[in-house]
TrEMBL record:
Pathway: Glycan metabolism; pectin degradation; 2-dehydro-3-deoxy-D-gluconate from pectin: step 1/5. This is Putative pectinesterase/pectinesterase inhibitor 12. The gene is PME12_1. Gene3D superfamilies: Invertase/pectin methylesterase inhibitor family protein, Single-stranded right-handed beta-helix, Pectin lyase-like. Keywords: Aspartyl esterase, Hydrolase. It holds the Pfam family Pectinesterase. Residues 70-217 form the Pectinesterase inhibitor domain.
Length: 399
């Protein structure tokens, strides 16, 4: 059959329709359905995209590989801003394998975990037998051991705050305290000798690299816009926000006989004449419960108590209430001149969090010729003193 001239010539492949007898008779007899003719078969081009085997194989692994490479590059770039970039990278690259959230706080958390792991290795080194160090100043290794325990506590609190999205300013405070602990420890070891000193100093330096990195990675917070406050305001609004109303009443109330709303049976009394529960302040603190969330009230009657008092880190929320800073005095006379470290010379040393004191004098009577002689040392958080006196000649308050 000829095609009209305006249509293109069909391809040469043709298909002939036959066997109309297999169709229903109504359809076979109707020319409008299937004409008995030969029609051209129009072939549409089939597009085939050839994929090279190398690309086909790479397509399944490329996204993950690219993602890992990108994260490693980002981590290396981030670590360049830290004091110890290589240690930072070695620590943070682990976040990829353990599926840590790739955010800045996730990286801070991983860095803190590395700091805790490294600091834990120092726990057994600060003893004269294992350190191989000869002390020049008495108590220098003991200082380091105590400061190290404080550092571990600071790091654990920091990690907990970062994980719970707590205040970054509190994390910064804890990490700054940890670095202060390092400086104090090294100050006491400066004059030490012995074959083990270089290795001990190297271990301390290695352990604190992750602490400094964690602090440098910590994002800055916007400064709070507080209204100006004046000390001694009539409404008592000069108290820090963390001091509860009950604690404020405890500090502001007068007289040692007031039970301050606490169970009188739980209040401890120190009296030098033997009329109280204890005759020394140190004995009362040792009796107090460890790691208590409740306040332990210790009333210290008028008198001069010749003792060095320590409030260790596990004695939390201790409250000392005197009869007045002119009549209740805790006095000792340790000094650098007598071979003590400045840290260990304190008459009263507070490492327990939540310590409160009122109407007490802390005195170091070593004298000006003895050099550093601390009356009160505070290396704990959330400490408040009210109507207290600190007397001495050099480095009287160490905080």
């Amino acid at each position: 059959q000829d095609f009209p001239p305006h249509l293109p010539s069909p391809p040469r492949v043709q298909c002939r329709l036959q066997s109309l007898q297999t169709l229903p008779s109504s359809m076979a007899s109707s020319p409008s359905h299937l004409p008995s003719t030969t029609l051209p078969l129009v072939l549409l081009p089939l597009l085939l995209i050839a994929i090279p085997p190398s690309l086909s194989t790479a397509s399944s692994s490329s996204p993950s590989t690219t993602s890992t490479d990108a994260r490693l590059t980002a981590i290396r770039t981030l670590c360049r801003s830290t004091p110890h970039p290589d240690d930072c990278f070695d620590s943070l690259k682990l976040s990829i394998t353990i599926n840590i959230n790739p955010s800045i706080l996730g990286y801070v958390f991983q860095s803190l975990r590395s700091a805790i792991a490294e600091a834990a290795k120092l726990s057994d080194l600060f003893t004269p037998s294992s350190a191989g160090v000869v002390e020049k100043l008495r108590g220098s290794l003991q200082d380091c051991r105590e400061l190290h325990q404080s550092t571990l506590s600071c790091l654990e609190k920091s990690a907990s705050l970062v994980q719970s999205r707590g205040k970054l300013s509190d994390v910064r405070t804890q990490l700054s305290a940890a670095l202060t602990n390092r400086a104090t420890c090294l100050e006491g070891l400066a004059g030490a000798s012995g074959p083990g000193k270089p290795a001990l100093l190297a271990s301390v330096a290695a352990a604190y690299k992750h602490v400094t990195n964690s602090l440098s990675l910590l994002p800055k917070e916007a400064a709070p816009n507080h209204r100006r406050r004046h000390l001694g305001g009539a409404d008592g609004d000069w108290f820090p926000a963390w001091v509860s109303r009950r604690a404020r009443r405890l500090l502001q109330s007068g007289g040692g006989d007031d039970d301050h709303g606490y169970d009188p049976g739980s209040i401890l009394t120190v009296a030098g004449d033997g009329s109280g529960n204890f005759t020394t302040v140190g004995a009362a603190i040792a009796f107090a419960p460890n790691n208590s969330d409740d306040r332990t009230i210790i009333i210290v009657r008028a008198g001069t108590y010749q003792e060095n008092v320590e409030v260790p880190s596990n004695k939390t929320n201790i409250v000392l209430l005197g009869d007045g800073c002119d009549v209740t005095v805790i006095r000792a006379r340790r000094s650098a001149g007598d071979g003590w470290t400045t840290f260990r010379s304190a008459t009263v040393a507070v490492s327990g969090e939540g310590f409160l004191a009122r109407d007490i004098a802390f005195d170091n009577a070593a004298g000006a010729a003895k050099g550093q002689a601390v009356a009160l040392r505070v290396n704990a958080d959330l400490v408040a003193l009210y109507r207290c006196a600190m007397t001495g000649h050099q480095d009287t308050l160490y905080a």
